[in-house]
Amino acid sequence: MLNFIITQSYEEMSALAARRVAKALARKPDLVMALPTGGTPVGLLAEMSRMAQEKEADFSRAFSFNIDEYIPLKKDDPQSYYWFLDHHFYQHANVPPENRFVPDVLAKDLNEECARYERAIVDHGDFDMTVLGIGHDGHIGFNEPHATHSPVCHVINLNEETIEANARFFSRQEDVPRQAITLGMGTILKSKEIVLIANGKSKAQVMKQLHDCTAIDPMFPASFLLLHPNVTVICDNEAASLISSLR
């Protein structure tokens, strides 16, 4: 069963999620994290950065892994997900550069790169804390609705809905990459703790679907989270507005 926490605002959602990360870091200073990108986690990363700057959290021994990355964007491309975490978090916190991990989407053999990235996660003992966003269709990372799913890190062809949703970050829709490397749901589910964050009315329908979900459905990838014993869903009032039992 998923644990839902409803907050009054986006800011409260972000702060609460950041405190979850800080508590995990206090328990284990060499915390192994998987962090999300996109519009939703901007506030979370800002609060984590503030904690680092004000000495409320020390990320100097932590390890951070990207959940996904666009093919074939370089790390310094402003549209890459590595750049996003660097811009919103790494530059403001004290995560050592050698402790920041992202798939090499420019590798000659992308399947081998996926295997290498998966090995790096395993070598670090799997994730202690994974923070997730959720797509309008229930996708997690870039694990989109599909009849079958790779459980480990893999190359994915993005569907049109995802491309359209991400087009707002690009000058033109045709500039949105059509492929990405993403962690598989199996890798995500090996995390010791999972926090999923969502905000805004646009996420209300998918949050209701997640709340009401009682069975694993590969066409609704977020349903795989039901397999995990320690998932906390933190969303604001607008995202929870269709869940009558939580009102």
From TrEMBL:
SUPFAM superfamilies recorded: NagB/RpiA/CoA transferase-like
Domain Glucosamine/galactosamine-6-phosphate isomerase: 11-225
The organism's place on the tree of life at top rank: Bacteria
Annotated GO biological process: carbohydrate metabolic process; glucosamine catabolic process; N-acetylglucosamine catabolic process; N-acetylneuraminate catabolic process
EC numbers on record: 3.5.99.6
Signal peptide boundaries: none
Cited InterPro entries: Glc/Gal-6P_isomerase (IPR006148), Glucosamine6P_isomerase (IPR004547), NagB/RpiA_transferase-like (IPR037171)
GO CC annotations, alphabetized: cytoplasm
Record keywords, A-Z: Hydrolase
Gene Ontology molecular function: glucosamine-6-phosphate deaminase activity; identical protein binding
Designated name of the protein: Glucosamine-6-phosphate deaminase
Organism: Phytobacter ursingii
Source lineage: Bacteria, Pseudomonadati, Pseudomonadota, Gammaproteobacteria, Enterobacterales
Gene: nagB
